[in-house]
Amino acid sequence: MSIVNTPKGKSILSNTISGVSANVLQNIFLGAFFIILTKSIGLNKFSEYVIGNAVYQIVGAFSTMGLANLFIREYVQKNKEEYSTINFFGTELMLSLVGFLLIITLSLTLYKNNLFIIQVTTILGINILFDNLIYCVKAIHIAEKTQLAFLKITLFESFIKVLLAILFYYIPFNFMVFILLLVVARIFTLLLSYKSMPLVIKKEISKFIQINSISKAIKFKKIKHLIYEGRIFVIIGSVNIIFWRINSLLLSKLATKADVGLYEIAYKFFSIAQILPVILLGTIYPILSKNYSDRNSYLTIAKKTYQQILLFSIYTTLFAYFLCPYFIDLFFGTEYNRAIKLTQHMFFALIPFSLSLVQAYILLSSNNEKLDMWLNIFNVLLNTILAYILIKLIGSLGSVTSITISFILFYILQSIILKRKKIQFLQNIKMEVTTLICLVLITLLISEYSIFPKIPAPILLTISLVIISTYARMKGILNTNIFIKK
């Protein structure tokens, strides 16, 4: 018998594999969209598009107020009356209107001399009106453990985006019309998302769609109450997006437009690597919240999750470091070779990022969201300050170096807090974790500083993977039985 089973007899591992498969395919489509768009409008225009998109995403993070985590936690704990679906939807709709106005204000303030960026930001900003409702649907799917259905819809949207990019590449037309077509695709995604939800939820939402129900749902008192109750999740949800997008804005002000585009290429590769830890932890989060009272099961799941995420981040870091030169040359061409070093250095952050993500979900599921909030605030402020300083000192490379340093310190602070809270799930594997990380560092240092220049990169990668895998198997870290229903 497994420690935790998901509905319909599916294991956490099988749900995660399904989710990762859908997400990988989605990111293949988004990657194709990204590459085709870059080739269609050139690096400088693409960089301006990235800047506008960054403004839109930062405001979008604030507009949702991070209320999904609060809704999911209360929903699975059966507090459905206080945190009703209608209240959730009504609040998000009102917040989206505020967000759209904020996007227009920011674009006019920050980039008043660049009409292209203002136009891109404004048109993309229309998406917020639909993004927040899609965000609600996603939260319901996660709470109901049916997120795979939602992923299939977003996968279809990504496919539509690729088709639009191909059309734009072969039959060039006004770029603003192209952006409007992306908005239309987002509206279509919202409609499909609504149809994908359980019948009971759809009946509740159908009441909300009526004009009189909307007026009842969108009330300042209810919005104020939800935001107050979820104020910690508001900050957590917002600062996470700001963390990843602020460097693009800093580069737009402190470096060249080309640097913004090159950074975005590095981030795109890194964001693909985030898929598995985010999907796995999104699947496990409701389970952890439910099983917090069962201390043994809770800590065992946390420990095994940590081990598997660690191994994944190690393998991905090594593969990305050694293979990204080939991928960038293949997909973008030699004129984008400056993005290689940025991508390699950004992947230095994957291990501390992934492990800190595990510990963040442990803090949230154990009702320590306030501590997680302050840690996230510290992390985004630290990254912003470091990025500002390092970009001035070493250029675009400083934008990725700041991310790695920030996550290392973030992880250390998390570990100290978990120890003080007596949530210690790594007591018996600290040596194994340290050894694995040291093996990765040795491999990267050998390659970065050409300590053994005669050893080809593929051979060095193979040797390190064999050593790491052998050690992990000897210590039982490769065993995933805890996730599988027996």
Number of strands: 0
Compressed to H and E, one letter per element, the order equals: HHHHHHHHHHHHHHHHHHHH
What is the radius of gyration?
A: 22 Å
The largest sheet is: none
Average pLDDT reading: 80
Oligomer: single chain
Any idea what the shape is? globular
Tally of structural domains: 2
From the N-terminal CA to the C-terminal CA, the straight-line distance is 5 Å
> Poorly predicted ranges (pLDDT <50, ≥5 residues)?
1-10, 482-486
What is the helix content? over 70%
Beta-strand fraction estimate: under 5%
Q: Count of DSSP helices?
A: 20
Class by alpha and beta content: mainly alpha
Secondary structure elements and pairings:
Blueprint: H1 12-64, H2 67-76, H3 85-110, H4 115-125, H5 128-143, H6 147-170, H7 175-196, H8 199-209, H9 211-217, H10 220-229, H11 231-254, H12 257-273, H13 275-290, H14 295-331, H15 338-346, H16 350-365, H17 369-394, H18 397-420, H19 430-448, H20 457-474
Helix pairs in contact: 1-3, 1-4, 1-5, 1-6, 1-11, 1-12, 1-13, 2-5, 2-11, 3-4, 3-5, 3-8, 4-7, 5-6, 5-7, 6-7, 11-12, 11-17, 12-15, 13-14, 13-16, 14-15, 14-16, 14-19, 14-20, 15-18, 16-17, 16-18, 17-18, 19-20
